[in-house]
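Example for tutorial group B:
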């Protein structure tokens, strides 16, 4: 149904995107480093859920609605920027917090999933990415639903795999420097800055 060579090109394109720094990567790394690997993996799960929804919305044509009604796109974009800025403030406000206390908060896993879903879902460019990339590998001569299912599964699965690697790597590095309060504070400020920068980029419509 989908040519193996086309599928390899599709996976290569996805890998290139998942290797680029962005809000999703920053969320997984910061959550795992500051709250522990379990929370990092839960954030990765939240991102996977949101990507699944984006693939579904793309297949249903919502991205086309955003294209024909820019005000809807801008509305989601501004809400997403505000949420990223809130995450930046949230991380910064815990710069002097205790890592063990943060990692063992009640409901931390569910909160991490929510952050993963919202971080990706409120980025309309993630939806537009799905809408632009997926049709390039879909043939009208075959079952469209089946093709979207296969390509969507690859997109979500590969993204989750990358996020798991980022989460485990971040946790490992964080444990190595867990005894250094100054390094922890610097990393916290850096993570906060990354989300702040991502919020500004999204707000001004940068690519």
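The residue assignment follows.
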């Amino acid at each position: 149904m989908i040519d193996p060579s086309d599928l390899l090109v599709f996976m290569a394109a996805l890998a290139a995107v998942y290797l680029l720094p962005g809000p999703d990567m920053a969320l997984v790394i910061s959550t795992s480093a500051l709250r522990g690997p379990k929370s990092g993996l839960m954030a990765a799960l939240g991102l996977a859920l949101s990507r699944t929804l984006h693939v579904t919305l793309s297949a249903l044509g919502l991205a086309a609605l955003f294209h024909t009604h820019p005000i809807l796109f801008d509305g989601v974009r501004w809400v997403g920027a505000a949420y990223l800025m809130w995450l930046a403030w949230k991380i910064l406000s815990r710069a002097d917090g205790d890592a063990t206390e943060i990692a063992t908060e009640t409901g931390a896993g569910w909160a991490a999933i929510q952050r993963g879903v919202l971080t990706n879902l409120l980025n309309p460019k993630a939806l537009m990415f799905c809408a632009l990339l997926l049709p390039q590998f879909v043939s009208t001569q075959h079952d469209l639903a089946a093709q979207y299912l296969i390509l969507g599964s690859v997109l979500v699965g590969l993204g989750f795999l990358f996020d798991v690697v980022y989460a485990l790597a971040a946790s490992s590095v964080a444990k190595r420097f867990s005894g250094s309060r100054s390094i922890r504070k610097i990393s916290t400020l850096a993570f906060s800055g990354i989300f702040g920068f991502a919020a500004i980029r999204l707000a001004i419509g940068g690519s």
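The chain has ten helices and no strands. Compare this with the pattern of hydrophobic and polar residues in the output above.
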